[in-house]
Specification:
Blueprint lengths: L1 H17 L7 H17 L5 H23 L3
Helix pairs in contact: 1-2, 2-3
Length: 73
Amino acid sequence: MYEDRKAHALEAWQRLFDHPEIRMSAPEQYDELLRLAEEYCEEGFITREERRAMIERATMNYRRAVEGAGLGT
């Protein structure tokens, strides 16, 4: 049961990372990814190291989105 919940949680995070919701801005996506990573860590689905890695991925993704917007892409 626990492994199913963990797998579902990580799939949801990845889905949001790959395909943000319609009309979701880059800051909103970033905030939600961070919130989920923290929630998953608190619930024990992931370790602090996994949480840190998820935050790093979300931060790099956000940085690319912001830099791309500044370049008109």
